[in-house]
Write a structure and sequence with these properties.
The protein is an alpha+beta fold. It folds into three domains: about 100 residues, Methane Monooxygenase Hydroxylase, Chain G, domain 1, CATH 1.20.58; about 160 residues, 2-Layer Sandwich (Alpha-Beta Plaits); about 70 residues, Double Stranded RNA Binding Domain, CATH 3.30.160. About 50% of the residues lie in helices and about 20% in strands. The protein has ten helices and eleven strands. The strands form two sheets. Strands 2-3-1-5-4-9-10-11 form an eight-stranded mixed β-sheet, sandwiched between helices. It has a three-stranded antiparallel β-sheet with strand order 6-7-8. The longest helix has about 40 residues. The N and C termini lie close together (about 5 Å).
Amino acid sequence: MTLWDRLAAIETRFEELTKEMGQPEVAGNYEQLQALAKERASLEQIVTLYRDHRSAERALADARELLADGSDPELADLARDEVAALTSQSEELEGKLKHALLPKDPHDDRNVIVEIRAGTGGDEAGLFAADLYRAYSRYADRRNWKIEVISLHETGIGGFKEIIFEVRGEGAYSRLKYESGVHRVQRVPKTETQGRIHTSAATVAVLPEAEEVDVTIGEDELRVDIFHASGHGGQNVQKVASAVRITHLPTGIVASCQDERSQMKNRMKAMGVLRARLLARKEEEQRKEIGDARRSQVGTGERSEKIRTYNFPQDRVTDHRVGLTLHNLPAILDGDIDELIDAVATSEEARQLEEQIT
């Protein structure tokens, strides 16, 4: 089915719904009327754009015909300007139509939990994990999002073995979901006397914040351990046992939080991480059940494949998913990552659109 066949079918369905809602027996059935109204509303934007595009195409055909006639020079000049304007309008409407046809990710408007872990590369990997956290923090600042650390394990030289944090803000998941995967860095460590380039890596998982209705967890499925916090937080963290570790017994998934001085707050944060991980696991199982062989980076927290390389000697960043290479690495690590995210998002949207119309 081509794009235009699909749009024609949507318009036909829209007209059927409009007609059905006008029938007396439907108007008297509140639940049925609500269901039909909801479906109709979900198609209205697409139908409006489709009709606007069709009108623009008709006007464009008329203008081209007038231009081809050429008997009146003044009219031909007007027609030429009209063709240019209508061509631009038609192309813009087609782009909006393609975007409107894409299935909306139900998690796009949610806050996220981001997990960054040092991979291969020892201390250098830990330093790179800290670099990534700094980049995401500054990116969040640019978009007026709020960041709150949930769990942090430092390496002692300014790096992170692991850091888990929450990002709260409009559209956080819709942007950061494209950061899931293995990030690789190539640079000369400060401790390297021979000037040799080392390669190390860190993994990033981006999980949509799960609501209680998404995942049902019984209290009897949990083991809660309380312990003394360690690491950052000042001397007080050693005096009071406030850190919380929660184990989901059926799956063995563990979440912990020691960032707050309050045991209750730590428990709430740890439960948030646990729900997010359980939701990610649940959705991954659903994808397997429907036989989706391609484990998309979108919304899966997939960390098994290298997605990006940061090369310091060459001042470049390459995203391997779309083959995009950018320079000015310091700016990128300072949070200027929109161009990278936009490229992957555009590629993913093109793939989804192809699936929609084939």
